[in-house]
Amino acid sequence: MLNPHFHRSIPSIFKGIALFTPGGDLLYCIDPDKQGRWHLNLCMALQEVLELSEPPHFLVPCYTATLDRWFDARTNQIRIFAEAYPPVFRYRALLNTVFEAGDLHWQVAPSQEICDPMVLETYRHRFPELWENHDLVMRCDPTPPVTVQQPASPYPQGYVLRLFVSGYSAATARILQNLHELLEDSLEHPYTLKVIDIFKHPEQAEADQVSATPTLVKVYPPPVRRIVGNLEDVDRVLKILGALNEGLKDD
């Protein structure tokens, strides 16, 4: 299935990210703004188009390829760097077609432990659709930035929080317990707190611009705010929740 927008023009400067399935389907994006959040978007798009139970984040980075075109002011020329992970390296001709790259030479991205074929095979029973070929080549557009004109958030009366951690350990459990007690004792409005392991979901860490752990991100209400490191500082934590100060419980 070929996306009807397949032949749209491609800018001279852009970042292109491709996400394949084990069966050979392809979703890709062409982003002139190079926002760097496309792995997450492509996984979500793949979930929608194949009607999966959840986004297939385990495909990242093993089944991805990236092309970057930028202007080099020193040489006054456009430079290109392209790399693909071993499981999708054989699709170089298709990648050159969708990115209009001619006979571009692709490099093999360094393999990672999480790309072990035996590990990826364990997902097959949960996502059998990904191991089928649907003749899908689909281009996804960049998501427009959120503005006040867009529909209201589905959480207008509460908080949406994400806690990024590096694996689960006794320290992680202690952080989560302390944070839970703080939120329960200090907030009147409802909240949702999602714990995200950056080793299992690197694309989510990339999307939220998380480079260290632990990191607490307040996604809603705007503006987005974050705390990196010490989450035991009560005043510091409550400060990032200040957009709903009227919701803090009275002592």
Describe, in plain words, how this protein is organized in 3D:
With 251 residues, this protein is an alpha/beta fold. It has two domains: 14-140, no CATH class; 159-242, Glutaredoxin (3-Layer(aba) Sandwich), CATH 3.40.30. Helices cover 22% and strands 24% of the residues. A hairpin with a 4-residue loop joins strand 9 and strand 10 (225-228). The radius of gyration is 21 Å and the shape is globular. InterPro entries: KaiB-like, KaiB_domain, Thioredoxin-like_sf. Residues 162-243 form the KaiB domain. This is KaiB domain-containing protein. Pfam families: KaiB.
Show the helix and strand layout.
Blueprint: E1 14-20, E2 26-31, H1 38-50, E3 64-72, E4 77-84, H2 92-98, E5 107-108, H3 117-121, E6 137-140, E7 159-165, H4 170-186, E8 191-197, H5 202-207, E9 215-220, E10 225-228, H6 234-240
Parallel strand pairs: 2-6, 4-5, 7-8
Antiparallel strand pairs: 1-2, 1-3, 3-4, 7-9, 9-10
